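Journal club prep, notes for RB
We'll compare a predicted complex against what the paper describes. Inputs for the zinc ion case:
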Amino acid sequence: MRVDYHMHLENGPLTLEYLEQFWSHAKKNDIDEIGISEHGYYFQQYENIMEHFVKLMDHDPVIAAWLKDAFLLDLEDYVDLVEEGKNRGWPLKLGLEMDYIPGKEEEIAALIEAYPWDYVLGSVHVLGDWCIDYSPDAGWPEKDINSAYAAYFTALVDAANSGLFDSITHPDLIKIFGHRPSMSLQPFYEEAATALSRSHTCVEINAAGLHKPVGVIYPHPKLLEECLKQQVPITLACDAHWPEHVGRGLDEAIDLAKSIGYTQVATFTRRKIELKPLG
Ligand SMILES: [Zn+2]
Ligand SMILES: [Zn+2]
């Protein structure tokens, strides 16, 4: 089964016409099922989870740019739209990509409880007040690369251990701009795989890295090897932000999964996992 469980409607309106474009492009790529996974921070209902960052917007230009269109939409409208698409017979899943914000676990859990998600993705895009994927010029020049990687994997393990999410997305996003640590990442990969396995959380293979400065899929094959050893299922993602990018890199992501030894991909319905043959 060919699935793409990670895409964003953020560059268009919340309309059936726009949603249909995502499914049309998926069909062209022989995809059987797609999951819509808008960022939580576009919705009013997420503002309390991000209150720390809302306060920072006045004097941090990166946070201000990141959240410039945040908290404007209503989750009800988004949920209704995807459900309406399903009613049209399109094979859609209702998802959300949520930032894991330490200390906000209860608020995140409440938001997850409140809507009929098929699945929820957990992400780490910020470490403290630092947006790691915004620009290589924002924060990176003054950072020690080993410390940045260690902090990232600590946050990733915490996100997995929270047990809040069905899959952890782009699980080594910290490599986005090509910064390389001088230490081995193997212990971090093992720790991340253990946390994912114990919390019954999937690991996402995300092809978007192919189109970022690093030029490779997230995560590193060695992390996937550890995940397979510990029986952590995979979800598949192209992380499209435009309809025409749905399925971009999916073949490479599937090839990577198969090269590691994976034979199945996780799908979700109302947060119940079902493993399907990888195809
Ligand atoms: Zn993301
Ligand atoms: Zn995304």
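Talking point for the session: The pocket of zinc ion (ligand 2) is lined by residues 6, 8, 97, 239 (CB under 6 Å).
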